[in-house]
Amino acid sequence: MAVRDPAAFSTIKANIASRAMIMEQIPKQLADFLLQVSDNKYIILLLINFLLLLIGMIVDDISGSVLAAVIFLPVINQLGIHPIHFAAIVGVNLGLGNVSPPCAPMLYMAGGVSKLSLDKYIAPTLKFLVFGHLPMVFLVTFIPELSLFLPQQLMGVE
Predict the structure, then answer these.
(1) What's the average model confidence in pLDDT over 120-146?
(2) Is 100 exposed, middle or buried (0-12, 13-18, 19+ CB in 10 A)?
(3) What letter does residue 39 receive in the DSSP assignment?
(4) Calpha distance 25→132 (Å, rounded)
(5) 8 A C-beta contact, residue 38 and residue 44
(6) Residue 120, Cβ neighbours under 10 Å: how many?
(7) Over 80: is that where the pLDDT of 6 sits?
(8) Dihedral through CA 108, CA 109, CA 110, CA 112, nearest 10?
(9) In the predicted model, what is the mean pLDDT of the chain?
(10) pLDDT at 5 > cutoff 70
């Protein structure tokens, strides 16, 4: 059976990488390292934001979500951060990484589809990233109520 769907192939690669990381205990080692850097929850969240941004620059959202769950879930659990809040943090950071230069896979794909040169769309995009997307990353990260409001109202999540 051949895998022809790029999303399925990407998910398979991420699952293989996550299993390898689990066998090598990389999530535990990273959790120990991050918790040694600081005992302040917000500093660790800033570090996680930075690492998620880097992951988003390199891989797509699906693979990045799988990798982030495997790598950061031990840290998140130890800090007492709600998993739904963490999922929102992962989503906004990977989204920002996918459109952030220098890698920006989604940005270059959109430029190719629209047949625009890089200089035509990079300046407006950077303005949006700095004044639109980056503040949203910080709001979602540091105000958990923003990502937990609807789940609490609709599903009774605590």
Answers:
(1) 90
(2) buried
(3) S
(4) 37
(5) yes
(6) 11
(7) no
(8) 90
(9) 85
(10) no
